[in-house]
From TrEMBL:
Annotated NCBIfam families: PPOX_FMN_DR2398
Name this protein carries in UniProt: Pyridoxamine 5'-phosphate oxidase
Residues covered by the Pyridoxamine 5'-phosphate oxidase N-terminal domain: 42-158
SUPFAM superfamilies reported for this sequence: FMN-binding split barrel (SSF50475)
Organism name: Piscinibacter gummiphilus
Cleavable signal peptide: none
InterPro entries per the UniProt record, alphabetical: Pyridox_Oxase_FMN-dep (IPR024029), Pyridox_Oxase_N (IPR011576), Split_barrel_FMN-bd (IPR012349)
């Protein structure tokens, strides 16, 4: 079989020493920006962010999942603690199952229009304390649970990735018809057990009525 660049492993790097031979040492700013708590300079990133991705590890390997709500939906309880409500979803509970297996988490916060991202590392536990649930009620609907995140490392990620991607540039936004719809994906993967057109027609109202 003909070898391709992505199947040829002879040029792979598998050690830290090999990586260090390829990459220079990080500049001082890359190290100085790290804190072991939610520093006052980093708190505004969390309090204005409407979106994050949370990475977890479970029995089936790594997972990353999006979370989003009104800006500041993650509460800074204190310098070492974040509170993240678990809003209504599809009940796969991939993230929660993983945390029950391994509490380590990594969060990536984005703020629309800003190039820098915020990275938070720590561990999480799943709480259903009545006062915590009531604290995050929206329209009289509490979350099913709240993640209590113990923070160990916080630092910002420079904006090169966002700049290169043009993430916030409206001229680069992808039109809806350029990608398959959720219904179309489900119809194909379910081998037509799911009616894709019917799913897509009902989806906007279903999402609006079940946000919380």
């Amino acid at each position: 079989m003909t070898e391709t660049p992505w199947t040829d492993t002879t040029h792979d790097i598998g050690t830290v020493e090999g990586l260090r031979a390829l990459y220079a040492l990080p500049a001082g700013a890359s190290l100085k920006k790290e804190a072991d708590h939610v520093h006052p300079m980093y708190r505004p990133f969390i309090e204005t962010s409407p979106w994050l991705a949370i990475a977890t590890l479970g029995t089936h390997g790594l997972d990353i999942s999006p979370r989003g709500d009104a800006p500041g939906f993650v509460e800074v309880a204190d310098d070492h603690t974040l509170l993240l409500p678990d809003r209504r979803g599809n009940n796969r509970i991939d993230t929660l199952r993983n945390i029950a297996f391994d509490p380590r988490v990594s969060l990536l916060f984005l703020v629309p229009g800003h190039n820098e991202a915020l990275r938070v590392l720590g561990s999480a536990r799943i709480s259903v304390h009545p006062d915590l649930l009531a604290r995050f009620e929206v329209d009289g609907k509490p979350p099913r649970s709240v993640l209590v995140v113990s923070v160990t490392r916080v630092f910002f990620q420079c904006g090169r990735a966002v700049l290169r991607s043009g993430l916030w540039n409206p001229a680069k936004h992808v039109t809806r018809d350029a990608l398959p719809t959720a219904g179309r994906v489900l119809e194909v993967l379910s081998q037509s057990e799911i009616d894709g057109a019917a799913y897509d027609a009902a989806l906007p109202e279903r999402q609006r009525s079940t946000l919380y």
